[in-house]
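A common beginner's mistake is to predict each chain separately and then try to dock the pieces by hand. The better habit, illustrated here, is to supply every component at once so that their relative placement is modeled jointly.
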Amino acid sequence: MQDAAEPLLQVSDLRTWFFTDAGVVRAVDGVSFTLARGETLGIVGESGSGKSVAAKSIMNLLEEPARIVAGSIRFAGREITTLPEEELRDIRGAEIAMVFQDPMTSLNPVLRISRQLIETMTAHKRFTPEEARTRAASLLGRMGVASPEQMLDSWPHQFSGGMRQRVMLAMGFSNTPSLILADEPTTALDVTIQAQILDLLRALNADLGTAVILISHDLGVIANVCSRVLVMYAGEVVEEGRPEDLLVDPRHPYTWALLHAAPRLDGEIGNDRRLATIEGQPPDAHAWPDGCRFRARCPFAIERCAQHPELLPVGDGRSARCWVTQDGSPLHPPQRAAVSGETIHAGAVTAPLLEVRGLVKHFPLPRENFLEKQRVLRALDGVDLEVFPGETVGLVGESGCGKSTLARVVMRLTEPTAGRIMFDGQDISHASQADIRPLRRRMQMVFQDPYASLNPRMTVGQILSGPLRLHGLADSAAAARERVAELLNLVGLPQASAARFPHEFSGGQRQRISIARALAVEPVFVVGDEPISALDVNIQAQIINLLIGLQERLRLTYLFIAHDLAVVRHISDRIVVLYLGRVVETAPAAELFVRPLHPYTASLISAVPHPEAARSPRRIMLTGEVPSALNPPSGCHFRTRCPVAAARCATEVPVLAEASAGHRVACHFPGTLQAG
Amino acid sequence: MSQAESAITDAVAGALATHETGSGANRRRRWRRRYGLAALGAIVVVVWALLALLAPWITPYPPNAVNVAGRLTAPSAAHWLGTDELGRDVLTRIVFGARTSLTVGFTVVLIGGAIGTLVGGVAAYARGWAEEALMRATDLMFCFPPIILAMAIAAALGIGTRNTVIAMLVVWWPKFARLARSLVLGQRSLEYVAAARTIGFRPTHILFREILPNAVGPLIVLVTLDLGNAILVFAGLSFLGLGVVPPTPEWGSMVSEGRELVSQWWVATFPGLAILTVVIGFNFVGDGLRDWLDPHARRR
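With all components supplied together, the output reads:
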């Protein structure tokens, strides 16, 4: 049929444009690559770089107003771009399968798992329903689903996100495709579950020889699975090569910027914590700039960059779209800003600004029938925590561990069930909203979702001046305007922003507005509830730098919640690890990552995908998922997933005890499990 | 190489050209398909509003001028839509009737909508026992057939426009309460509300200044769609003799007066057509507004 040397997939000069009312958006604008049988290829880029559209083009899953205007996609000897719809359907699902980002919406909620799996297989007439059922069970088993026979008859809502992604993978592999396209398959998952899914993907590629195209914004994820990487920027491939080459010695300034903008678990943290960032936003896809599309943001730009560079080889098996590195020279590492003032507050013996003791928050669930026993969700199950003036405390844990609940209880958006919250020496555990109002001036919060946390009907000026008027910080409209201008300046937004509405800003800019709003009342304590989780790497770095700069200038104290361990390590002085509503370990940031004592901390750290896949240390693979907070395990909550659990762990709740100065851990066998 | 390149450029130029030349006409066609009916409805509604507003100046006769000699004359040059049993000009009475219908319609829907929004909004924001109490009261109202209940209340209060409006208001607010509650519940969980609370704003400020402006779109759609309905119900009550006090010109009572005059078809037909056009007009405008406010329908 076809000769063995022919690649499985050959994309040449693909251009997929969106013909919208507002003009032509050149989402994919000249992408070429080849993929051999059984190869693993990663595509990395920020949102809007065209990586998802490129993947959809390969399946020809485009919908109006998107159209492939030029280029060719040859898959196993056939030209996808001109193939009639019926033949495309034969290829989709059977020869190319796709796994999407959101496992919560990609399964049909009204159909049983078995039916969805079986239909995928019988649709292409390769299996009879009976065969398909047997195969479905064995596939689920292969994907790491326990007792697959019973699970087949479950409904999607009975599955967690990670389990659904396993079902999606089972569906993807059910017709033994020769190519699987995974579009951000682990972005919505926790880090331990992500590690499980990535391992699975790698094993499936090795065992079945299925080629994989993995799309992600995270270089670490890609390097973990793929043997080759494409870096996309502004609709083009700007660099291509092996991950180990790209990660050590990037030859395109954009790759270079991506690499240095992301904090790393093994990175050095000097006195200055600012990350290297590139200025500005990606260009407008309606009108890509002439010449190199990265030129306006590029710290290396030279005169020749006014000409549009081609993707040219720069070494063994790698190429880059850059004039600067054409001569084969590497890009120098970023220069760190000089140290500015003292930062670390070497355990100054002061009273804590925030002190939390035995904090409990239970949410009673509505009874489904009258006779049912009241069920209680134990979001927080006795948390002790203190935050000293001027420090940054990082709060980590998987979703469902109570991080956000803790933030909301501390901010007294909701009342604790039991326990005590002291803010600056004042007991606010059960203070009324009226009593707490004066304190709102001193404690503020930055939220996670930049699209939901700003009122869409108010201008930025109104959003920022509201708090000023409420707390009497501006007695006239003119004074408020002046202060709004100051605030915008503080967070690096132009003055004209005040008259605009939130939807006119990008995610990163909105998060700046959110920060400005929190700072409007001049607080001393700011809680950040995953304030950078929804942002692209470079924007993340910009916001981190902003937060660090503000802390230095305004002497702020932060309680910073995040699930990205590298970010938390980078920004925090001290870290608190939460598991199922309890603190399992707390230590100074540097110490915690070098010497984690709790097995949960150790497994969290080792689950982070390391950019250097080959050199990654032995991993502790956590099995299973966080148990439900409705019915947590007895004794130590972590014992059901713990590799070193013993009989004692089921009966005795470990207490948070000091292991060394400032390092406390709640475990019967601290230090038995090491990340390295 | 250069040949391949020029082929690509040609393809791209072709795609661009079709997009650009087609775009103007395409856009206009798409707009007409989406909002054509709404525009038509808006024109009908505006024409009726203008007629109502200018009624005393544009009508040829006073609305209640009785002329027994000229009773039940067929449409003619002097009386375009004929005269009724008392010789009153049907056209004049229809134009004056628009004043009553539109005023009552707007009053019922706006006041009923305001009450309902307040009840539903407060219930959704307060949660707990306040929500239970308010929403069970709303559910209670849904237990009665609305028109029958309105009739009973109107009959008890006595005939008259004001009493009928009050009777209608009693049955009108619950649907707005339900809608407002669900809208406010949806907004309440968004982070901007939590942000307003951390700043220290009071609940009334958060509900009225922050949440309700974001919930107002669907409420406006319901108000518009409901205007026709309110006009129809009021005409129905008047038809049954519960609405206006005679001889006030009103469409429902005019239809009622002409209902047995089979050969004098114009007496009942024209007020009926007036009701029809106004109700359809408001429905078209409401549908158009809904499509315009619904981003999913809008993209299609």
